[in-house]
Amino acid sequence: MSLPRRALSRRALLSTAGATALLAVAAPPVLASPRPRPRPRIATSAIRQIPLQGAVNVRDLGGYGTYDGERVRYGLVYRGDHLGKLTDADVATLGGLGLSRVVDFRIPLEVQYDGADRLPAGVAAVSRSVTDNGLYGRLLAAIGSRDPVRQEEMLGGGRAAAFMTEVYRTFVTDADNRARFGATLRELAAPGAAPQLYHCTSGKDRTGWASWLLLMLVGVPEGAATEDYLASNTFRAAYDARVREGLKQGGLMQNPDLIIPLQEVRQEYLDAALAEVQAGYGTLFRYVTEGLGLDLRTLVGLRDRLVG
Asked: Which residues belong to the active site?
């Protein structure tokens, strides 16, 4: 499918026809037939990670090129993993970003286990739980059992990966999830809004879906949006390996590799969400307008504020 690369004037963008053209650029329809996987458009090394001691997957979403030759602005939208273990130095680093609010997609069980966010003074903490479909509780139950047979029954034989695909489907099918993703994107489109950060526990699934949508909606090619999603595997690899080694050394799991499908992001997980978009809405445009409740002016606002 060939996508237009022309730039659109502000007047054209604000018209109904112009906004529809914008979505044709920014959000190509989900196709029912198989298609080649898009190639990444930006090296992982070029992604701007925010160096912190207590979190490993906090990144600036700026820098990506769009179809019409513009770039996503740095310093406006950040994505991350949970911020409950930040050091004082980390909090100071966040303070330098000029954040106005931090949106937390975690459910109460995750907050209870990992702690509330540590944030700079004056930054609004917004709890906006997106269900993990029981993932966190399942993981705690499996590890807490210390039983290799039960762990294999719960996570082995492809069951962990299958569970992850179900989690991603709920991003699209669950009405509360749609409302919370929609609210987050709507806030990011507000004219003159100060920088914001959103996160979940690992910064890869709920955060990954929100970030993929945002990049697509502002006109970033699908290959680059998908690479940003998959980059969590790079940023989390060392930390996740230490977690698995700790589980083994601590006698909690004989085979900690069982949790790798839960630690990783995979193309198949993203595809599961997109299959639900196709089944329920037909196109990404209808998903964001009807499913997430974003009107054309909001979609134009995202592009206007974040790209240039």
From this structure: 200
